[in-house]
Every structure is written in C-alpha cells, then in structure tokens.
Amino acid sequence: MSHPPAQRIYVLDTSVLVHDPTALFHFEEHDVCLPSAVLEELDAAKEGLSEVARNARQVSRFLDGLLTGHTPGSLEDGVPLGSGAPGEPSGRLFFETEGHGRGDSAILAAAARLREALPPTPVLVSKDINLRIRAQVAGIAAEDYESDRVIDDVDLLPTGVDAIPAAAWDRARTHERGYRVPVPQDTVWRVNQCLYAEDGFEGVVRGFEDDQAILAPVTDFREHNAVWGVRARNREQNFALHLLMDPEVDLVSLLGAAGTGKTLLTLAAGLAQTMDQGRYREVIATRATVAIGEEIGYLPGTEEEKMTPWMGALMDNLEVLSAPDSGLGGDWARAATADLLHSRVRIRSMSFMRGRTFLEKFVILDEAQNLTAKQMKTLITRAGPGTKVICLGNIGQIDTPYLTESTSGLTYVVDRLKDWPHSGHVTLRRGERSRLADYASDVL
C-alpha cells in the first residue's frame, strides 16, 4: 500500500461499525482498514433483532456491495469507498488478514502490524475508551469516532426560552395576533421560541414580518388554567405546557434534570387532550430499556407487562394524576379512575416499533437521551396524521455505552428540528420535587 504524504489510514474497531454502519464512508480522502478480528466479531454479532445485530448486518451488506466485482487478488490494492466526487469518499478500503481470533487484543495486534508495515502511521478508531487507552500505552495512535457528533459543545444547544431585551420590548407594537417586536441584532429567534419580558409578559414566536417577530401571549397555566389538575410552578413549566397543548406543534422536546416536571407535565397534557378534548385516541409511552444496575433477567407476561418495570417514573406520575379531586368515593373512585386512565395509556416496547404507524396518538419517548440518532429517526418517523411526539430526557444522565451528550439522539433531534415551524423545545432548569430533593441534588 502506498499513500500520499497527507493521507492517513484508519483502523476501525467493531464498536464503531455497530454504532454507525455508515462509518466506512465518513473518512473522506483517507483510507480505512478492517482487521480480520473485526470481521469475526461482526459475524458473531449479526444474529438477533437488537440494534447491534441490525447494524452488524448492515455493515456486511455494505462490504458485500463494495467487494462485488473484485477478485481476491485485486484486494491487495484496496477497494474504492466512493467515486471521490463532492460528498463522496475518495479513500480505499483494505483488509488486514494476518491475524486470527477475536477481541481487543487481536485488533491491537493488527494495528501494531500495520504500524510496522506502512509509511503513514495507522490510527485506531474506537468507541471503546479502554481499547483506546490500551492502544496508546502500546504506542499506537488512537481516536474516538466523532463523525456522529451533532454539535461540538452541548452548551450551544438552544434552551427554547429567552428574555426579550428591554430596548426591543420598548419598541414593541400591538398586532392582531399579539405583539410585533423587532428582532435584536446578533440574536436568533425561531418559530415557537418562548420569550419573556421583565414586566411579566410571556409569549411565543408565531412568525416573522420585515425583521420583526410576531409574538402571541401564552396561556397562564399557573392559576386558573390547570391541565388535568396540574399547574405550572415556574416560567419554563408554563412554556412547556403551552407547547404540549398547542395542536400546531407536532414535536416537543423537553430537557431537564430529574424532578423538573417533564413526565408529569407531559402526561397531564396527553390525558387532557385524549380524555377531555378528544384530540388524540390514546397516549403511547415507550423508553429505551437500559439498566442502571444489574440486569434482572427475563420478565414474564405481555409486551405491556414486560415494559411496566421500565416505566416506573411514568406510572408514579400516572398515580398522581389518577387521584380524584375530592375525597368523595374513596378507594372505589380512585380505582375506577386509575382503570380508566390505564385503558387510555399504552406502554409499548421500542423493539416492536419498526413498521408501525401511529394515527392520532400522543406518543411519549421517555429517557430519550439513551437513544441513538438512528433510533430516534426510526421512532419519530412512525408518526402518522394527527400524532404528536414528545421527547423527554436529561442529556447529563446517559446510560447507553458509546453515547455521549454530543452524540445522543435527543441532542440530534433538538439540534436538527430547531428551525422547523411545527416543533418546540424547552429546557427545564428548576427542580420542583421537594426541598429534600432540591438540596440533595445540590450537595450530594
């Protein structure tokens, strides 16, 4: 193999390919090498219906397509990964076949052999931080795979809530839909962005006319407009309820730490629009089944019964919402209300979402920070006519291996849909659980 001086060769670990099957085509003019150990691990991972198995099979299909028409002897010079046209890679794919077996040690050994044989120093690319550490200790250059990074810094994610500068608010004029406010210089406002002024005004951007934003006042859900018995306790919660209740907003993303009210507000809005307004047929809830501690093994029962232990947070909030407003009826009334709500709130497993279409449903994707960008796309594209999708999560609490704050599917959705006029986003910052929870989150 010969390479131009500026060209590099990247040795890909299995973790990169099962995380992103298209990784083969993301190295532009640089070459890519797959050790035989990686091919062995892909073969072992292909069985089953998990996301890893699907991705392993997709990588195999890509490799089969690349190798079609090539004779075994022609592989020494590599296989073109693309035409080199704009947007396509111009590098080549090589295979390292001297080693045997599987595992990190076999991949490290392959990278070491390439380092001795090739003029450009090979770089091992892996999502496995321990493998990268072992490579660097062995004198092999190693990097994380970052082509799936959505943004460089999660602090650049929009919060969805901004203050209106006093100078701009002073120049506001009335409009048939609310107010017309000049957009300040060096400021980016979007449709459905939530804005507030120092005098207590709270509104949402409905559109733009001649460098001016059209702001419509939001309903005050703090005092006289409770949603299924739930009232907003702060400004961000009020904005969140507005977006959740707005039929013009098809997708809402709510970010926030535990206790900020994401699940309670969402369930209350879903029940109000399903049971009272008849806007949706039922509430569908799902989440990624990622265990924090030890796995508890297989669970008996139906799909809904298997998912119930994973949906503990949702069920806790459903109990709060199912309590009757008064003490009349006692336990019987409570049980009847709970049965009625459970009949309209369906818990579904993410494993059976492919191929489905949700019509007139209020879909809640809980713990969405544990989903990849591909999984988020798969779920959101299930939405049919009249369906609203709510993505909830805390990107500071990711339990999925190989996902980070900047590569999470929740970050991906917030960033990619921020300019779509039928989406809304709010970051909830203030915890509203209890003084004990608030104090513990600060000092522990």
Name a few traits of the molecule.
single chain, Rossmann fold, 2 domains, 444 residues, 6-stranded mixed sheet, elongated, 14 helices, alpha/beta
Low-confidence stretches: 290-297
Helical segment count: 14
Percentage beta strand? 15-25%
Task: Report the principal-axis shape.
Answer: elongated
Q: Under the CATH scheme, which class of the largest domain?
A: Alpha Beta
Main beta sheet, described?
Answer: 6 strands, mixed
Please state the average pLDDT score.
83
Query: Structural class, from secondary structure content?
Result: alpha/beta
CATH architecture of the largest domain: 3-Layer(aba) Sandwich
Report the CATH superfamily of the largest domain.
Answer: P-loop containing nucleotide triphosphate hydrolases
For the secondary structure, the number of strands is: 18
Helix content: 25-40%
Oligomer: single chain
- Estimate nothing, just give the exact number of structural domains: 2
CATH T-level topology of the largest domain:
Rossmann fold
Radius of gyration: 26 Å
Side-by-side strand order of the widest sheet: 3-4-2-1-5-6
- Kindly, what is the distance between the CA atoms of the first and last residues, rounded to a whole number of angstroms? 55 Å
Keywords: ATP-binding, Nucleotide-binding
Organism: Halorhodospira halophila (strain DSM 244 / SL1)
GO molecular function: ATP binding
Domain PIN: 8-133
